[in-house]
Amino acid sequence: MDKLNALSAFSALSQPTRLDAFRLLVKAGTDGILAGEIANRLDIRQNTTSANLTILLNSGLVRNERQGRTIRYFVDFEALRGLLSFMMEDCCGGQPEICQPIINEIACANWENSHGR
Question: What is the distance between the alpha carbons of residues 6 and 76, in angstroms, rounded to a whole number?
Fold first, then answer.
């Protein structure tokens, strides 16, 4: 990921509703969530949800898939990995042991959440 893409991603995530929607999608994993369900879970109007999801979509952090009359949204995990890699790329001045606890925390938290722990 380059700097412009990272800035677009951070800009998209810098608004509370979009950050909440993105986090819901991260939790949903590969199953994604229907747009209407995101609106219901966040207790926001459908048109507000649509506008915020469009911004996330344009940032490259999420993708969507039409399913009949509904649209399911998914986190683009490659884009998320790219963003995290961009942030960690020059970490710790060549001392990976300093960054390793951060990497372990992210990996363990995601694994534990996905396995109901």
Answer: 14
